[in-house]
């Protein structure tokens, strides 16, 4: 009943939202740089799981450049996915923007992304960071790093992910819940790289080192390290970055801790992406591609990462302010499209390992 | 005047508005119930039933029990003290203690988890003062079930405080003086006379607070406490099974229904009516010095925990973070517009229902139960029900319809919050007024308009303000139904908080609280004047 009625709602929504009467030009014309005159008055509907003021500036810039009206629906990634499921074929979404390749995989496996070709995107974005058929494209990178208390631990004791499972860190570790996609994706890479058994042994080792049961987000783990409740925490780099560039109080918190990019001598630090996909329900995929291409320009990259403190993906794009505080690092070359299929197994392993 | 014969159909006609009101409120609820029963619930339901249902159910029961107990402990003594005694700061506390009503549960959850976290100011100060490290002491954890109950009680106790205070104020002083002249001390007067007489009002306030607690989503989610409402939204969000969510909603509804029935039983048995219409200004007793200090510190402590400390933290955070975001001000406008629309609709519905309740017909009972169950259903579920109805209409969910739909959901959710104060106002009025009207030959119609309406209106202004504040704070339905490019303050606060950006969440949270403050203060003042015979 819900699905049917919601689908009806979506039909109504679309008709009311007023898709452009004139259907867009030829498919594949994206790289031919559609002029502002040709796209004037058209509408692009974006479903975004991001909530940044800088994104607004980004949309405004795109609107000014192209004359395309941008509509945005912001919500969490799971809510957006469920909204699209309810809306079905009639979903007005043209572009989906969410964080984490694992989340993009969920949209793809439910059939809500479509394969698109764009020479510009394929040239700008390394193959590792996009889906091979063009179902989604990575646009900004985040690294899963170890934040630690340099007074309690020497840097060399936390320079690999494997260190976190060592007995010497018993009672010293703070990590968020395993249901979080960042942890699922990290373990997903280990499953692929080292096999399920090694991944499970690692998860058990980490879980036996917890200073407290997992609670709160990544920021809460960093605060716990700064307060001395634990000696090390596993977090995404930008949470530390935001504290380090934040208010006085936040900067003091960050200053008590140090950041380690694990596995520099080995596979490289686990990274993930914020990415965009063209919705399978989009009536104007070429506009959607045009928008994603804009995100992959140097200008788009700078706007996309300025507030989030993620790393840009496109060569030559300016780094957001503050990121120079972190060292350069070697990133894992793991193809992110391979993460998604390991999610279910990763969750099962976490559950068995007692990592709540 | 004698129009009885031509108006033979009038009794049925008079029931029409309340029937309509009940229908408008019951529709989304009925759809959810139907979906819960008719649809299988999907594969997710089996999983939820076998592994999560018990946890959700015990979670909700524990939250209701503990929150209820905390609300009573916080509200009733404070209400009694500020009404009956003189002590330093009494006049100030009388209205200060209502202020926490302005801050929604999720806002207090953000502020308190920031305050009481291991890196927060409270624990930092403790470590600095004692030289301990974070591993040397135990500190209460806000991200826990008791933490959630504390946070919910902080924002919900004013419901009980307001109704209890109104009841204490309205009690005929003669009754109390009679008790005193028969040798009862202040303690005995409280336990044997004032409290039993105030019990229906306290029960009504507590019922409101607990329904609100049962429907809370934002705070439970943020603090990670599994409750039925959390489960309902999760069934939709993570399992992709709204039907399983509807099943869980059935469980929650059954719980609430039991609750409403028990509350009505309690009230029925307690049915005290004021027979005396002699009102005098309450002669507040001067408290001896130690007791006065105790009373003042109790009130001050309560106000600090529930309001001053968390809101102060939000102010500090907002100032520290600064703002250069225009979208917050847009969101403020949207919030006020939406809340006004929702409050207006809910107000009309509440008035219709309140006026019909004295007739005790099955239709009035139906409407009141519909309103109560609407209040207990999480906004997310109502939003799904409302969507189903709107799609049957030709207009569809575009900008205006989406706003109208949200106003509708707000009305369904919050009409009970308006009905209860009006009903309480009617119940407080001496029964003899109505009886006098009847004995003077007033038709039921005339009695409704010339006697009951003015009486209900004394509670209605209060009700309208409560409705506005409630709608302003609503989160899950707003998240789901708002049109493109449309944010409210609640949505912004939630989005920032779930991104772990508490500094950014502080300003919208603070604005929600501020916008809610003015009506709450007016409400508080209005009630202290509402007592018959009080100085104007």
Strand tally of chain A is 9
Which shape of chain B, going by the Cα principal axes? globular
Measured by DSSP, the beta-strand proportion of chain B falls in under 5%
Task: Give the strand tally of chain B.
Answer: 2
Q: What's the CATH architecture of the largest domain in chain B?
A: Orthogonal Bundle
Distance between the termini of chain A: 34 Å
Poorly predicted runs of chain A: 1-35
The number of helical segments of chain B is 22
User: So how many helices of chain A?
Assistant: 14
**Largest β-sheet summary of chain A:** 9 strands, mixed
Order of helices and strands of chain A: HHEHEHEHHEEHHHEHHEEHHEH
Coarse shape of chain A: globular
CATH superfamily label of the largest domain in chain B: MetI-like
- Counting copies of identical and different chains, the oligomeric state is heterodimer
Domain count of chain B: the total is: 2
| Helical percentage of chain B | over 70%
Helix-strand topology string of chain B: HHHEHHHHHHHHHEHHHHHHHHHH
Query: Largest interface, with Cβ-Cβ < 8 Å?
Result: A-B, 52 and 58 residues
**What low-confidence regions of chain B span 5 or more consecutive residues with pLDDT below 50?**
1-8, 532-536
Which structural class should the secondary elements of chain B be placed in? mainly alpha
Strands of the largest sheet of chain B, in order across it? 1-2
Please provide a written account of the structure.
The complex is a heterodimer of chains A (about 350) and B (about 525). With about 350 residues, chain A is of the alpha/beta class. In chain A, helix 3 links the parallel strand 1 (about 45-50) and strand 2 (about 70-75). Chain A has helices at about 1-15, 35-40, 55-65, 75-85, 100-110, 120-125, 180-195, 195-205, 220-225, 235-245, 250-255, 285-295, 300-305, 345-355, and strands spanning about 45-50, 70-75, 95-100, 135-150, 175, 230-235, 260, 270-280, 310. Chain A is globular and about 65 Å long. Helix content of chain A is about 40%, strand content about 15%. The radius of gyration of chain B is 24 Å and the shape is globular. Chain B is built from 22 helices and 2 strands. Chain B has 2 domains: about 15-40 and about 325-500, MetI-like (MetI-like fold), CATH 1.10.3720.10; about 45-240 and about 285-320 and about 510-535, MetI-like (MetI-like fold). In chain B, strands 1-2 form a two-stranded parallel sheet. At the A-B interface, helix 1, strand 2, helix 4, helix 9 and helix 11 of A face helix 2, helix 6, helix 12, helix 13 and helix 16 of B.
């Amino acid at each position: 009943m819900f699905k049917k009625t919601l689908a009806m709602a979506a039909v109504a929504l679309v008709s009311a939202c007023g898709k452009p009467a004139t259907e867009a030009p030829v498919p594949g014309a994206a790289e031919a740089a559609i002029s502002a005159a040709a796209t004037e008055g058209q509408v692009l509907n974006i479903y975004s799981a991001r909530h940044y003021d800088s994104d607004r500036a980004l949309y405004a810039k795109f609107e000014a450049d192209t004359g395309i009206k941008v509509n945005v629906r912001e919500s969490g990634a799971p809510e957006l996915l469920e909204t699209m499921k309810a809306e079905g074929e009639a979903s007005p979404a043209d572009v989906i923007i969410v964080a984490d390749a694992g989340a993009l995989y969920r949209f793809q496996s439910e059939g809500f992304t479509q394969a698109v070709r764009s020479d510009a995107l394929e040239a700008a974005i390394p193959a590792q960071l996009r889906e091979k058929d063009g179902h989604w494209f990575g646009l900004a990178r985040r690294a899963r790093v170890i934040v630690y208390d340099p007074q309690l631990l020497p840097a060399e004791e936390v320079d690999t992910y494997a260190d976190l499972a060592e007995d010497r860190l018993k009672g010293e570790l703070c990590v968020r819940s395993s249901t979080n996609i960042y942890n699922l994706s990290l373990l997903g890479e280990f499953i692929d790289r080292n096999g399920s058994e090694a991944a499970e042994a690692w998860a058990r080792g980490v879980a036996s080192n917890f200073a407290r049961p997992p609670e709160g987000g990544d920021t809460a783990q960093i605060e716990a390290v700064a307060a001395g409740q634990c000696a090390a925490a596993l977090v995404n780099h930008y949470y530390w970055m935001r504290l380090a560039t934040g208010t006085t109080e936040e900067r003091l918190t960050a200053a008590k801790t140090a950041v380690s990019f694990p596995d520099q001598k080995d596979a490289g630090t686990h990274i993930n992406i914020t990415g965009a996909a063209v919705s399978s329900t989009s009536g104007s995929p070429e506009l959607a591609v045009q928008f994603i291409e804009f995100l992959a320009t140097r200008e788009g990259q700078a706007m996309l990462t300025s507030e989030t403190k993620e790393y840009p993906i496109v060569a030559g794009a300016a780094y957001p302010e503050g990121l120079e505080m972190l060292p350069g690092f070697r990133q894992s070359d793991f193809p992110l499209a391979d993460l998604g299929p390991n999610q279910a197994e990763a969750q099962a392993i976490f559950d068995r390992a007692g990592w709540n | 005047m004698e129009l009885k014969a031509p108006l033979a159909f009038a009794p049925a006609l008079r029931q029409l508005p309340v029937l309509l009101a009940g229908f408008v409120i019951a529709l989304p609820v009925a759809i959810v119930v139907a979906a819960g029963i008719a649809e299988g619930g999907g594969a997710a339901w089996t999983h939820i039933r076998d592994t999560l249902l018990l946890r959700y159910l015990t979670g909700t029961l524990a939250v209701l029990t503990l929150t209820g107990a905390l609300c009573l402990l916080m509200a009733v003594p404070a209400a009694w003290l500020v009404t009956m005694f003189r002590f330093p700061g009494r006049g100030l506390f009388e209205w200060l203690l209502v202020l926490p009503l302005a801050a929604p549960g999720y806002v207090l959850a953000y502020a308190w988890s920031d305050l009481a976290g291991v890196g927060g100011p409270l624990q930092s100060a403790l470590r600095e003062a004692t030289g301990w490290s974070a591993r040397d002491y135990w500190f209460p954890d806000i991200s826990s079930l008791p933490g959630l109950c504390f946070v919910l009680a902080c924002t919900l106790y004013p419901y009980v405080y307001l109704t209890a205070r109104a009841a204490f104020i309205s009690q005929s002083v003669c009754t109390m003086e009679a008790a005193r002249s028969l040798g009862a001390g202040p303690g005995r007067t409280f336990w044997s006379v004032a409290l039993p007489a105030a019990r229906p009002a306290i029960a009504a306030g507590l019922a409101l607070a607990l329904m609100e607690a049962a429907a809370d989503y934002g705070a439970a989610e943020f603090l990670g406490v599994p409750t039925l409402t959390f489960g309902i939204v999760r069934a939709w969000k993570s399992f992709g099974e709204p039907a399983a969510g509807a099943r869980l909603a059935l469980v929650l509804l059954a719980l609430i229904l039991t609750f409403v029935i028990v509350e009505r039983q309690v009230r029925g048995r307690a049915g005290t009516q004021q027979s005396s219409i002699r009102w005098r200004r309450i002669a507040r007793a001067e408290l001896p010095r130690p007791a006065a200090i105790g009373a003042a510190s109790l009130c001050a402590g309560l106000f600090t925990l529930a309001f001053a400390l968390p809101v102060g933290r939000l102010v500090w955070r907002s100032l520290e973070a600064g703002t250069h975001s225009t979208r917050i001000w847009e969101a403020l406008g949207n919030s006020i517009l939406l809340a006004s629309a929702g409050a207006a609709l809910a107000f009309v519905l509440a008035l219709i229902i309140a006026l019909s309740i004295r007739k005790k017909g099955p239709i009035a009972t139906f409407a009141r139960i519909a309103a109560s169950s609407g209040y207990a259903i999480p906004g997310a579920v109502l939003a799904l029900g409302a969507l189903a109805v709107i799609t049957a209409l030709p207009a569809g969910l575009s900008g205006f319809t989406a706003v109208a739909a949200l106003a509708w959901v707000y009305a369904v959710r919050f009409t009970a919050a308006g009905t209860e104060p009006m009903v309480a106002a009617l119940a407080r009025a001496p029964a003899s007024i109505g009886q006098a009207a009847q004995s003077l030959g007033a038709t039921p119609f005339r009695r409704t308009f010339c006697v009951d309406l003015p009486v209900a209106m004394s509670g209605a202004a209060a009700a309208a303000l409560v409705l506005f504040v409630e709608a302003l704070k609503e989160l899950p339905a707003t998240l789901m139904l708002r049109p493109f490019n449309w944010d409210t303050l609640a949505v912004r606060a939630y989005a920032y908080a779930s991104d772990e950006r508490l500094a950014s969440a502080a300003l919208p949270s603070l604005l929600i609280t501020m916008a809610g403050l003015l009506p709450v203060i007016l409400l508080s003042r209005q009630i202290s004047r509402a007592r018959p015979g009080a100085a104007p």
